[in-house]
Amino acid sequence: MLPMLLAAYIGSEERALIARLQRRDPQALAELYDRYGKMAYSLVLRVVRDSAIAEDLVQETFLRVWNRVHSVDSDKGSLGPWLMAIARNRAIDYLRSSAGRERKAVELDEIEHAPLYHEMEAKILVSDQARRVKVAMDKLEPNYRTVMELAYFEGLSQSEMAVKMGQPLGTIKTWVRTALRSLRDELGVAASS
Amino acid sequence: MTCEELRDHYGLYSLDIAEEPERGEIRAHLNRGCEVCMAGVKRALETTALIGLTAPPAQPSPKLRRRILASVGANDRRSSWLPVLAWAALLLVVIGASLAVRNGDRITEDTLRAQLRAQSAEIARLAQAFAIVSGPRTTEVSFGGAQPRPPQGKVFLNPSQGVLLIASNLPRTPTDKIYEMWIIPKGAKPVPAGLFQSQDDGSAMHVRPGLVDLASTAAVAVTVENQAGADQPTTTPLIVAAIKGATP
Question: Is B113 an 8 Å CB contact of chain A?
Answer without folding.
Answer: no
